[in-house]
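[Automated response] Your request has been received and processed.

Submitted sequence:
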Amino acid sequence: MSSTLAGAFGIAALFVAVLALVFAIQALRGQSGAAKSAKLPATPTPEPEPLGDQPGAKPGTVRSELRKLGKEIEVTRGELRETLQHLAVVRYDAFGDTGGKLSWSMALLDDNGDGVVLTSINSRADARTYAKEVRAFASEAKLSPEEEEAIDTLRKEAGPTVES
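Generated structure:
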């Protein structure tokens, strides 16, 4: 088999492994979040409409529909805070004998700073891939300077709304 074909298979295998890892993390987060969601109803329960002489408080009116939509938006925002939606990539040359910045570290985090940092170290002979779990912008595993740079980039983008 030619080295070009072997390289293409290697890249395809790496891509499949990264996708599997992301899906596995989402599944694990879904299981750990099941306890949280068991406490909260899956859909917002509408509050009883106020009675009295308020115009527009009747079901089916614009005001009541806007209240329902507002509650649904808040539930959706809460769910979005826990999705892996923030991405930072740092490219670098891991070894002096290679060029082109083929090695990389990528942080995929949610609004709370939870997620994963993926790293691919490429040399002339092979490539190695690592995945490390991240909680609150930190990892129990030792992080490389490039991995920390990717996480710090997302921490700075999160701003003061995220407690770190």
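Summary generated for your ticket: The mean pLDDT is 79. Residues 109 and 115 are 4 Å apart (CA to CA).
If you did not submit this request, please reply to this message.
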